[in-house]
Design goal:
By secondary structure, the protein is α+β, with helices and mostly antiparallel strands. It contains 3 helices and 10 strands, in the order αββββββββαββα. Strands 1-2-3-4-5-8-7-6-9-10 form a 10-stranded antiparallel β-sheet, with helices on both faces.
Length: 159
């Protein structure tokens, strides 16, 4: 039940953060982080604008990760079991995602523990694995971006 409650929050609140409408945290080299709806979020399109990674550090703990891509076919609100996320040196196995659509791109949203941020900060790529399909996304400046997410969340919780 907890997954579906969290997944509903993902769908309702999952969008590309709008830095023009919110408080921002950004250092040179970071993706930039904005405060939205009591949580801290960041996103980045790849160089071709075909893939989008969205991270949202929830105020009470936990991380929402969204990965959407041109050409993926997922159904919003549908559950997708058995996915994997590969990062440098670690693989998260047997994950359940929920289908999402953001900016006309379809893909997956995952609800993850805070320890995911530790692994994300140390990685150079993210690979979404769905059976035989693999989608590798190179990530830059993740350590700075994760640090900004953590600073943002700490400041938000202190308010």
């Amino acid at each position: 039940m907890r997954f579906y409650a969290c997944a509903a929050a993902v769908i309702v609140g999952f969008s590309v953060p709008d830095p023009a409408s919110a408080q921002t945290y950004r250092r040179a080299g970071s993706w930039g982080v904005v405060v939205e709806g009591g949580s801290c979020a960041t996103s980045r399109y790849d160089q071709d604008g075909r893939r989008l990674v969205i991270l949202r550090a929830q105020r009470g703990g936990g991380v929402l990760l969204g990965v959407v891509k041109d050409g993926w076919s997922t159904t919003p609100d549908q559950s997708y079991p058995g996915l994997e996320l590969g990062l440098t040196g670690v693989t998260y196995r047997n994950l359940r995602s929920i289908g999402v659509e953001v900016d006309g791109l379809q893909g997956h949203a995952f609800v993850l523990a805070d320890t995911f941020l530790d692994h994300l900060a140390a990685t150079s790529h993210l690979t979404v694995i769905d059976g035989d399909r693999r989608e590798r996304i190179d990530l830059e400046q993740m350590a700075l971006t994760v640090d900004d997410l953590r600073q943002c969340r700490a400041a938000t919780m202190a308010d």
